[in-house]
């Protein structure tokens, strides 16, 4: 065995804190090291050429790199080894940057530590075993979870590239949050006008299959080969027969709070989500339908001219296979009732921004008129409160919801335009307008008269006058005075939160979430649409607060990743899978239930014991399924389970040198 | 301060706009004007506060303040305002409104020597009877 050691300066990143020449010298003395060198930039072409030359000249068969985290460049070095005819797993990396030079301040001690880290890596390299991956076929079909604008865009892009896509939406219509909005900032485009064509396109695209009123029940498999169970909830209306006349909705006697209008209007038990719903055919909400509660009524069945009502329809489970999955599960808004100082829920004229948005919408509960819910009159003084539950570690969410500053500016503009007699006051901590044309939009809002006051509102309470007004108490830091406003309407810019139920989706997909519940991307800068789970990508607010253009761009990015995967047609399996040492495996099968990928099964080996042939059970790994998580190896009591690249022998060799 | 409160009439707002040819509502309260003003220690409202009060149509408060008469019209604020609002011009406009109304100013010359030329011209207007 001939080990070569290469110590990188990483420019000044490592060299300033670690005496790289000294580490290289020390490495020369380590057993089986036949060559050692320090290099300015190992990842550069020059650095790679140095390694390549040394491999040839010194017949190296194990390479130890002292450089940055293997996350950065392990694959660079692996490819180099492969091109030299060596197994890529014959390279070992000592992280002397992130784990040494960047975190220490004493050069002498850092140099000692770097030497130790290299020594450890050298010891590990002695026990390296060659690993290979297999090529696995990719099923060229995508699943998109969530039918909001992000999901729709992702589905359209993949479908346009020529691959089939299934789009799953839990509501009876696609469209998501954007369908609720009136106008969009900063162009004031009518939201429905730009969204509905996309919804219709998704519904009619030959490569897209819509699963509305459906939920993902189970996900198994791995990149290129996911097996997914989708539950289609019974719609109780035969979708192929119903002609969408809407007679049933008119006649249905049961009224329910309309979630699409944030509860500010009524819909029927048999309903479509909104007038432009896609598909535009009703479903029966069984939780509220009289027939399902009491067995009586049945009016819709009688009225329906096409006999489309089917009370006996059952939920259906469809099982499909996909190569890639895009999560686009969207968001909910935080209920501001926890922040009792704003009096939400205690006075009808304290509303959320989304409620105002619905009021402004021509198909909303007030047909586009802005009113004080208490008396139906047009409000004159409107107070907007920013950051309600956002940037609030106490009772809210620590993060910024990103879109509130701009949609509030939009609301003041729309109010000014539609009801010039209204006056808007905006209490804010600061106004954040990062985005193209956003600062100008904020400028326009100010120009049109929105009065921005810098400071947070501390109390909203009833004024106790005949008009049932509200008194809003804040402070303006510029004037340096407490400010009180007798308001007709108070609008709360409520915080955005991950969709209820998204943690269940994360569990099904094996995604990790951040502390706020948003799905984590693989790398915050360079892999913003990928996840740690290969073949699963993210689009829209499920990954973090975003506005529409960002959600759409991310959706296109996510779909591009899926398309790349489909175009390649095959993926390399994970080489660092679990391996069973059948000789010592006792066949207890304790490892089977811990494997999150169901990669372990029981097999039998035939042995001769005392002259007789016996069959003995042992654990066996399906290498295509195993993701190398290591759960089984950690658990195995007989030490029969090992993970390629991280065998117990390798780890122990490292520990022993320290 | 509680709203609703007495605010400038549309006529007064128009008058100010006509004089200054600026839209005070453009101010985003960056505070740069106050940051550079050499006379803030003698002012009751700082330049940015004057701007905010003007923006909120609370002229009465500015009319009753010392600031307008302390302002030396040095134009430091105007040369630096990132919104190009020229706060000095706004001050001047508000002063003009008072003078037009009352036909008099009420300035107290603190440092008669070394007054910059622009300030001198402005002072003449302020001192005019
Ligand atoms: S059966 Fe249910 S859906 Fe049909 S009319 Fe009655 S309440 Fe409405
Ligand atoms: S390492 Fe073990 S537990 Fe993890 S995926 Fe592979 S077989 Fe399953
Ligand atoms: S012009 Fe007046 S307000 Fe502006 S900086 Fe000079 S003294 Fe201050
Ligand atoms: S410098 Fe201009 S924008 Fe900034 S506070 Fe003063 S007047 Fe307003």
Automatic annotation (TrEMBL), chain A:
Q: According to its UniProt record, which cofactors does this protein need?
A: FAD
Q: Does the keyword Iron-sulfur apply?
A: yes
Give one Pfam hit by family name: Fer4_7
Where in the numbering of this chain does the 4Fe-4S ferredoxin-type domain appear? 233-263, 280-314, 576-605, 617-646
Q: Which InterPro entries match?
A: 4Fe4S_Fe-S-bd, 4Fe4S_Fe_S_CS, FAD/NAD-bd_sf, HdrA-like
Q: Which domain of life is it from?
A: Bacteria
What are the entry keywords? 4Fe-4S, FAD, Flavoprotein, Iron, Iron-sulfur, Metal-binding, Oxidoreductase
Give the family, as the similarity comment puts it. Answer: Belongs to the HdrA family.
Q: What name appears for this protein in its UniProt entry?
A: CoB--CoM heterodisulfide reductase iron-sulfur subunit A family protein
Q: What species was this sequence derived from?
A: Proteinivorax hydrogeniformans
UniProtKB/TrEMBL annotation, chain B:
Pfam families according to UniProt: Fer4_8 (PF13183)
Q: Which domain of life is it from?
A: Bacteria
The record, for InterPro entries, names:
4Fe4S_Fe-S-bd, 4Fe4S_Fe_S_CS, HdrC_iron-sulfur_subunit, Helical_ferredxn
One cellular component (GO) term of this entry: plasma membrane
SUPFAM superfamilies linked: alpha-helical ferredoxin
Record PROSITE patterns: 4FE4S_FER_1
Q: Which intervals hold domain 4Fe-4S ferredoxin-type?
A: 24-84
MF term (GO), any: metal ion binding
Keywords associated with the record: 4Fe-4S, Iron, Iron-sulfur, Metal-binding, Oxidoreductase
- Signal peptide location: none
Q: Which Gene3D superfamilies match?
A: Alpha-helical ferredoxin
Matching PANTHER family, A to Z? IRON-SULFUR-BINDING OXIDOREDUCTASE FADF-RELATED, IRON-SULFUR-BINDING OXIDOREDUCTASE FADF-RELATED-RELATED
Listed name of the protein:
4Fe-4S dicluster domain-containing protein
| Species the sequence originates in | Proteinivorax hydrogeniformans
